Amino acid sequence: MVSKSRYLGRLAPSPTGLLHLGHARTFWVAAQRARAAHGTLLLRNDDLDAVRFRLDFVDAMIEDLRWLGLTWQEPMVVQSTRRSLYRTALEKLHAAGLIFPCARSRRDVLDAASAPHESAAPADVHDEPVYPAQFRPPPDEPLPSLGDKISVNWRFRVPLGETVAFTDGRAGPQSAVAGRDFGDFLVWRRDDTPSYQLACAVDDAEMGITEVVRGDDLIRSTFRQILILRALGAEPPAYYHCPLMLDEHGTRLAKRHDALSLRTLREQGRTAEEVIRKFNSEAIKP
Description:
10 strands; about 30% helix; globular
């Protein structure tokens, strides 16, 4: 594990599409904060989404980040090569009785909810409906073994009623109540792949990341990852969540916005300096 005696940040793009202006601003903020702290950035390829992952997107994201003027410490960390780390973490959670197998579908969970879950926070692609407490098995029920190949979802058993809190570097104090604002969440999927929440938490701890800079749509994910880190005996990093960039209709930018991808802007003859000028200075407010 890397020492936390100095600032260590990370860029963590997912190769499921071309990087757009929103990604660029967040990564640029991460680079600015690392530079201000005389620290270092690592690049992590979050390539666990086997359905949408494409090798050409990996090459494109590296080229686009370099074109923007960002640098990082080599070599690049690749999530798909770190499966043994995630499996070890899962086994530790299993031994502690902090996870349970779940055969319920997302529709089951939605249908069982007494009321739709509402939040003013931006949508998080990794978010889940609040898992009904009546679906969880009793805590004293013996757990089945994980098995060599996992074919059922495994969920983290959140401490119902506990307030999970952290102070964000930009947004200030944040808190959520387990079981109300978020519920038991996936840590391993039935297709035998780790969830984003588990892989991200394990990587940030093992890589020695001291501050995570990412979009504020991931604030709710942070509560889940803090619980995983605590369960694994790891200290959470500091967090700095940037505001999202919106299009002319007020909709958050997504990878479907090809017109605002860095690759398209480059092909149009835009310079990195022009792109950086588009960034809202509020994104780097200390």
